[in-house]
Design goal:
With about 210 residues, the chain is α/β, with parallel strands linked by helices. It is built from six helices and twelve strands. The model has no long low-confidence stretch (mean pLDDT about 90). The strands form four sheets. Strands 5-8-9-11-10 form a five-stranded mixed β-sheet, with helices on one face. The two termini are about 20 Å apart. The longest helix is centred in the N-terminal third of the chain and has 15 residues.
Length: about 210
């Protein structure tokens, strides 16, 4: 669901070293099961890292999976099951990192930041500064609070669900780290928690 790495960009070479073992593990996992990687706002332009993992950049999100069946979500830690939810008669499943439906100016800026040539230029600046730029970004990420509770996220979730324009679909998003479930009047929206913070993950079962 994106943001698996604090900072990983293909063109910025100083971000690669830490990620290499995990990229290898994801590729190995993709030989056994289908792995879909939805890029986030901290990890993007990743397609060249992978041969088997299916990478979906922000431009191709949300990803829609058709379904007329029940969908079950189970929250687990590495050693136990915490809770589960079942959604009956769901018309489909939407997957997105979450930083979509932005205001036009912000959306243009963030998409421009993913430009291959701009990032090559930024990589050159980073190398000339002896990786000072990337190190500063990583340090800031470590001190950033990503796990605060967003006030009125209930209203925000209803608004976000409406943007998908799908009746009785299940929408799964990351990005906000709220571990929030909206399940009312055929509106199914689930915002995932952070695995790194809570050491929990979610299993989605489609019959």
């Amino acid at each position: 669901m994106g943001d698996i790495f604090d900072l990983l960009i293909y063109e910025i070479k100083s971000t690669h070293h830490f990620a290499k073992p995990y990229i290898k593990l994801l590729e190995e996992l993709a030989t056994e099961i289908e792995v879909i990687y939805l890029e986030g706002n901290h990890d993007f332009n990743l397609a060249k890292f992978f041969k088997k993992v299916k990478v979906f950049p922000i431009q191709k999100q949300a990803l829609f999976l058709s379904s007329k069946e029940n969908i079950k979500i189970t929250q687990k830690t590495l050693d136990k099951e915490l809770k589960s939810f079942e959604f009956k008669g769901v018309n489909g499943l939407y997957l997105a990192h979450g930083d979509i439906f932005l205001k036009p100016i912000l959306s243009f800026f963030l998409r421009s930041l993913r430009s291959h040539f701009l990032l090559l230029f930024l990589n050159l600046l980073d190398r000339l500064s002896k990786n000072h730029i990337s190190k500063k970004i990583k340090k800031k990420q470590l001190s950033k609070n990503l796990f605060y509770v967003i006030d009125d996220f209930y209203d925000m979730a209803r608004t976000r669900y409406a943007r998908y324009e799908c009746d009785e679909c299940l929408v799964l998003e990351g990005h906000y780290h709220q571990n929030f479930l909206l399940n009312e009047e055929g509106k199914y929206y689930f915002n995932l928690d952070s695995f790194a913070y809570k050491e929990s993950f979610f299993v989605v079962e489609l019959p």
